Amino acid sequence: MKFKWWFIPFGLLAVYAIVFPFFFRNPEYPMFFTVYSVFNGTLEHQAIDGNKEKLQENYKAVTLGSLAPDFILSGMNGKKVSLSDFEGKTVLLMFWASWCPTCRGENKELTGLYPEYKDQGFEIVGISLDRSKTNWEKAVEKDGVAWVQLSDLQGTESPVATEYGVYATPATFLIDSAGVVIGKDVRSEELDNYLR
After folding, report:
1. How confident is the model at residue 4, as a pLDDT?
2. Catalytic residues, which ones?
3. So what's the pLDDT on residue 189?
4. Which stretches of the chain drop beneath a pLDDT of 70?
5. What's the pLDDT at 18?
6. Is residue 2 part of a domain?
7. Is-contact 94 124, C-beta < 8 A?
8. pLDDT computed for residue 42 by the predictor
9. CATH number, domain at 102?
10. Is the dihedral of CA 152, 154, 160, 164 positive or negative?
11. Residue 140 is assigned to a structural domain of this protein
């Protein structure tokens, strides 16, 4: 059979159609995680860019000293959880996603800090901006996350993320035992000082 030029692009498309979706179902596979992250992150940031002015206004409205907006979201087991359930505790509210490399790094930093304070009235509440429950669960398992995890699986278009004005990830809000916002964009290295 005579070789035809279109065999090459056709072959590449066939490999893409068969192999790529397989690895996207397991985005923790090292070879493809970077591509996966960039692809999903790009799509989510396009959604943010279309609503960025409104998100920034909402972010500014969640001021230090104001009451943190309450919400109800589902955990991985489907159980409904509200922010007000943690009244009496200091809470780090963290918006993150499996496709966000910075978020994943922050998860790993917090796993070292969380055990030190979790029995002293401190809790972390993670809100995933993933759309895939599988990807969310895999990231939680891989990062060794032991704190509360919630999501509505609506990505960056989540009403809760919109209310808090999340236009970049990770986005964090430190909330005191009375439900008052006492810190914004607090990273793991600063958190220890806040808690002390």
Report:
1. 54
2. 103
3. 79
4. 1-50
5. 52
6. no
7. yes
8. 57
9. 3.40.30.10
10. positive
11. yes
The reported pLDDT for the residue numbered 47 is 62
| Per-residue H/E/C for the chain | CCCCCCHHHHHHHHHHHHHHHHHHCCCCCHHHHHHHHHHHHHHHHHHHHCCHHHHHHHHHHCCCCCECCCCEEEECCCCEEEHHHHCCCEEEEEEECCCCHHHHHHHHHHHHHHHHHCCCCEEEEEEECCCCHHHHHHHHHHHCCCCEEEECCCHHHCHHHHHCCCCCCCEEEEECCCCEEEEECCCHHHHHHHHC
> What's the CA gap between 189 and 172, in Å, rounded?
13
Cβ distance 187 to 172 under 8 Å? yes
The domain containing residue 18 runs over which residues?
Answer: 7-195
Instruction: Count structural domains, the chain.
Output: 1
**Looking at the domain assignment, is residue 166 inside a domain?**
yes
Q: How many CB atoms lie within 10 A of CB 156?
A: 26
Helices 133-143, 101-117: inter-axial angle, 10-degree rounding: 50
Inside any domain, residue 40: yes
0.85 exceeded by pTM: no
The CB-side HSE value for 91 (13 A sphere, CA atoms) comes to 27
Show Cβ contacts of residue 7 under 8 Å, excluding neighbours closer than 6 positions: none
Length of the chain measured in residues: 196
The pLDDT score that the predictor gives to residue 25 is: 46
- Provide the edge-to-edge strand list for the sheet that holds 122-128: 80-82, 72-75, 148-151, 122-128, 90-96, 171-175, 181-184
